[in-house]
Design goal:
This protein is mainly alpha-helical. It contains nine helices and no strands. The longest helix has 24 residues. Keywords: Membrane, Transmembrane, Transmembrane helix.
Length: 224
């Protein structure tokens, strides 16, 4: 029963985050209008909004205009649901509750950054401040290493290799998990971004970095 509840929570949040990111990218209100088909703009019924199941019931096509529905949101729902389920099975309940706040916040920011290469400031700061109330920490590094790494981050932002949103997100990671987690996350995210960039045929001039930071942090949290 608990596993089912966790999976439902995760998929619902992933569905909301996908919707939020889409509306943020198109400068639309999250509250109005209600959910609609991206192609024919017909309002959607409740059953069509059920994460994963709604896509399956419609057989991957809009119930009204029969246009093919993008798999993006469904894949996000399924992936995040399975991840949170596996995290729940491997962590103590109180720790999972704290980590779920971080994961939910990071997912929303990652999807927004992926679509627009920017993040909503209110959600960035609000989620970060809530995260600071949780008791999450990794072992600290030597002060000298910490200072050098922070100088590198500030320098990268000054040279526009990192955006201000990236730096603020990393700052909340540092304050919540410690400098060691920040260093490990940044290194792994950089490797993931480099792999993505090298495999991309049409190489972009810039990359949204928070999706890579989120992926890296999820991997580290799972295996820690």
């Amino acid at each position: 029963m608990y596993l089912f509840a966790v999976f439902c929570y995760a998929t619902v949040w992933a569905s909301f985050s996908s919707c939020y990111a889409y509306r943020y990218a198109h400068n639309e209100s999250i509250f109005y209008p209600g959910s609609y088909c991206d192609y024919c703009h017909h309002p959607l019924n409740f059953w069509q909004l059920i994460p994963i199941l709604g896509f399956c019931l419609q057989r991957g096509r809009c119930y009204y205009c029969h246009h093919k529905i993008s798999l993006h949101s469904t894949l996000v729902e399924l992936t995040f649901g399975l991840y949170m389920l596996s995290l729940f099975a491997s962590k103590a309940p109180h720790l999972w509750a704290s980590l779920s706040i971080f994961c939910a916040w990071s997912l929303l920011l990652a999807l927004s950054d992926y679509l627009t290469q920017s993040v909503p400031a209110f959600e960035l700061y609000l989620g970060g401040l809530v995260l600071l109330t949780q008791k999450l920490s990794w072992p600290p590094l030597e002060p000298g290493c910490s200072l050098c790494f922070l100088v590198i981050l500030v320098g990268a932002t000054y040279l526009q290799l990192l955006g201000s949103g990236d730096l603020i997100y990393l700052g909340f990671l540092w304050a919540s998990f410690g400098i060691q987690f920040l260093l490990a996350t940044t290194c792994l995210a950089s490797c993931l971004a480099l792999c993505y960039f090298s495999l991309k045929k049409d190489r972009p001039t810039s990359l949204a970095f928070i999706p890579f930071l989120t992926t890296a942090s999820f991997i580290l949290l799972y295996f820690n």
